[in-house]
Write a structure and sequence with these properties.
This protein folds into 2 domains: 30 residues; 147 residues, no CATH class. The N and C termini lie far apart (46 Å). It has a 7-stranded antiparallel sheet. It is of the alpha+beta class. The chain is globular. The chain is built from 5 helices and 7 strands.
């Protein structure tokens, strides 16, 4: 009896310990990586070519007039934030507004999906502060979404992509999400 209790306890500890080890090792690979080395952009974008629809709206290269470039990347999302001249931002805003399927003002994916006919979007991963919600000055323009959940469990899996643009900050954020 004592030997079986010992083996049961040992097995339980092994399962708990193994689960902790796996969680810490695998979850750290999904953490967003903020990249400021703009030379890595093309490498990351090229890795995502298999998901061409989700990244085709991203620029092929970082524009030469872009400032304060920040890239956030994980296997689940890709986001690049660029400060551009105001006239260029206004052009991009008009271009993307005309093709957006959903439009939001500020907030994050949790706010957006919980609105009537809402869809998942993104968090502000490239923000300079820990806040992951977009300020109200940003227009979040969803170019497409794909619900891969099952009936009764909407948006359990899927993807979405688009841009977030702030005219006042003269910034555009290109984003793509998978979950």
């Amino acid at each position: 009896m004592k030997r079986s209790q010992f083996l049961l306890t040992l097995a339980s500890l092994s399962i708990v310990g193994g689960s902790f080890f796996m969680k810490t090792n695998f979850s750290s690979t999904n953490e967003p990586k903020i990249i400021t080395d703009t030379l890595r952009y093309k490498e990351i974008r090229n890795q995502l070519r298999s998901d061409n629809d989700q990244v085709k709206h991203f620029p092929n290269e970082i524009p030469t007039d872009a400032k304060n470039v920040r890239i956030a990347y994980s296997p689940e999302f890709f986001q690049i934030r660029l400060k551009q001249p105001p006239n260029k931002i206004e052009k991009l805003l008009l271009q993307y507004r005309s093709i957006a399927k959903h439009k939001y003002r500020g907030g994050d994916t949790n706010n957006h999906i919980n609105q009537p006919n809402g869809v998942p979007t993104t968090f502000f991963y490239t923000n300079d502060s820990p806040t992951e919600s977009f300020p109200a000055t940003y227009e979040i323009l969803v170019l497409n979404t794909d619900d891969k959940g099952r009936p009764g469990f909407k948006w359990n899996h899927g993807d979405s992509y688009g841009v977030a643009i702030s005219s006042s900050a003269s910034e555009i954020i290109y984003w793509s999400e998978k979950w």
